[in-house]
């Protein structure tokens, strides 16, 4: 397939980007890595009047620590995230998740923020952003605003940005050294999108789980934070009995889709298995950090 005709603008500043988006009156599209957008344009699933390239805007390609948060700029590629020492040391769960993202060629171009904006319900970085209480920084000619990750994902491939806004960076929480974490994904082949995935973090306080975060992807229209599971695990020891309770809660509450790749029932059972492994590993890591 060939794309429908479009204009192309290589922006040099954040202001140029926001002015171009505003002038395009909803017909403009940002291109970052192009790894998801170009196939959609080639299939004419999207037909932007103008493509606004942010790759030459200075200041958007860095990863930096701000207090207990990490800021990832809009043109930080997956490969940068995968190899950055700050990511590896301060958010090891993101470092681990990166091993599951696509293949080398895609990781060389695709961006963290582009993946979050694309909002694929089976993509790793949207789940990481939700799990780590991400803050999405958006700019437009009207100024800038911060959107909590919990308010960003509106459906499969749908986010809550206004048509004239673009994401300049995303902040995610770092993990304290005593945090236990686990990322468990199942895909048919390495680099494929997940059939289901669990990501969790927890700490030990007085011998029981505290500050529990539990997220999933591949089992809904968006990445999910499962407050019911978090409440169930909080204040308890991770035992065989608790894992049974979590698996049965997931079986009762998840409503995944059936598609070409797996049935809803298969995904529900997979979710329970992955949850057991993830919580056990996170508990073990948290326990080991106190040794
Ligand atoms: P683009 O393709 O440039 O843009 C995607 C969308 O986001 C567009 O609508 C664009 O307008 C918008 N956008 C981009 N940046 C911004 C911004 N700063 N502000 C506002 N809107 C913006 N991903 C996974 O997570 N896991 C996988 O296993 C995986 N496998 C893949 C396999 C293949 C073969 C391919 C081609 C892709 C795969 N991907 C996978 C997707 C890949 O991670 C993409 O890089 C990512 O989804 C989009 O990032 P991008 O920078 O390429 O965004």
From TrEMBL:
PROSITE patterns: FAD_PCMH
InterPro entries, sorted: CO_DH_flav_C, CO_DH_flav_C_dom_sf, Diverse_Substr_Oxidored, FAD-bd_PCMH, FAD-bd_PCMH-like_sf, FAD-bd_PCMH_sub1, FAD-bd_PCMH_sub2, Mopterin_DH_FAD-bd
Molecular function terms, GO-annotated: FAD binding; oxidoreductase activity
Highest rank taxon of the organism: Bacteria
FAD-binding PCMH-type domain ranges (all copies): 1-177
Entry keyword set: FAD, Flavoprotein, Oxidoreductase
UniProt-recorded name of the protein: Carbon-monoxide dehydrogenase medium subunit
The organism of origin for this protein: Mesorhizobium australicum
